[in-house]
Amino acid sequence: xxxxxxxxxxxxxxxxxxxxxxxxxxxxxxxxxxxxxxxxxxxxxxxxxxxxxxxxxxxxxxxxxxxxxxxxxxxxxxxxxxxxxxxxxxxxxxxxxxxxxxxxxxxxxxxxxxxxxxxxxxxxxxxxxxxxxxxxxxxxxxxxxxxxxxxxxxxxxxxxxxxxxxxxxxxxxxxxxxxxxxxxxxxxxxxxxxxxxxxxxxxxxxxxxxxxxxxxxxxxxxxxxxxxxxxxxxxxxxxxxxxxxxxxxxxxxxxxxxxxxxxxxxxxxxxxxxxxxxxxxxxxxxxxxxxxxxxxxxxxxxxxxxxxxxxxxxxxxxxxxxxxxxxxxxxxxxxxxxxxxxxxxxxxxxxxxxxxxxxxxxxxxxxxxxxxxxxxxxxxxxxxxxxxxxxxxxxxxxxxxxxxxxxxxxxxxxxxxxxxxxxxxxxxxxxxxxxxxxxxxxxxxxxxxxxxxx
Length: 454
Prior knowledge:
By secondary structure, the protein is α+β, with helices and mostly antiparallel strands. It contains 18 helices and nine strands.
């Protein structure tokens, strides 16, 4: 029996090989060879974030049970402590210099094709689950028995996306996410990971939910209003919905808020046929405009889209600008990104592949921006402006956001998780208007007239 020597490899590479246990020996070798080359660095983005603000030298193209016991959480943390975080590995070791965004983009290009990810997708379900923040919502034995079904594949993807993003945020903040498992008596449940009052993040939440049951008439109405022709039996529509959703509110007003959500719906009609579709997107909400950040963020998303169709980015970018629009204010919520919904063509496999590519961008499109502005100084006035902009964020989520409205209309939804997207603090000033020509006025002009960043 061949012996694989791990001691000289980085922890990330070691964990990548371990996760592939049980696969063909050649696969193990491939994993060792292709584990992120940046993982040899001892520090994530060493020194990053110390670039001065505006540096011109950077060039780049819901009721639930209480949470798991402390012992249970610790057990899963021990199992996962050496787990390779693929998305983090794509950006580990990027130095704080003029090329750090370029290298992040290059890592994004390489990551989807590397052997580590192939091993993860083909490996044993239980082995993959050990790297998650918590055991999956669906019992592992059930996932094993239907390994090839889209419901299982999507649940594994959203669990991995949650773990990758949480660990990347813990690395920069130094804090730890509270993991709260909850159950929905009507069917399913979720895992809410929340970090509050950290060093960098005032509130960071990354939720996974997997729910099933029957759509209420109100929820079915929302589906029909979007053109879905749904035929229930005796007024009932069995459904399954799952997704990962995150909103991050940093303390520093020069670090943007980010949001992403990727989800899958499946509905069974009276004749037994199933309708399915995917939705999601990633968008950025800065308090102040930094054009380099905007180009990096949109460029990373565009690369992921271009791998699948040249029209995806331009179409989904426009969709994002239209969707995240606060009509009563006449402005977008932020500088956008991509957004799509009801996506069910050309076929299920291709759409799922596209969603995977998008999910893998959440770390490399955001973490370089966080590190870049980590030590930016700010004034009381800039903090006040952040609070005002957060107020706009709250207005959109409560008045227009489709996910919030669907959640509130679904029996047994967990309100704490639905409203996790709201910041701890916000501000509403009567008739607030920034002076012309100020940086505060600059972002308002962009929000009223969306920009093509790439």
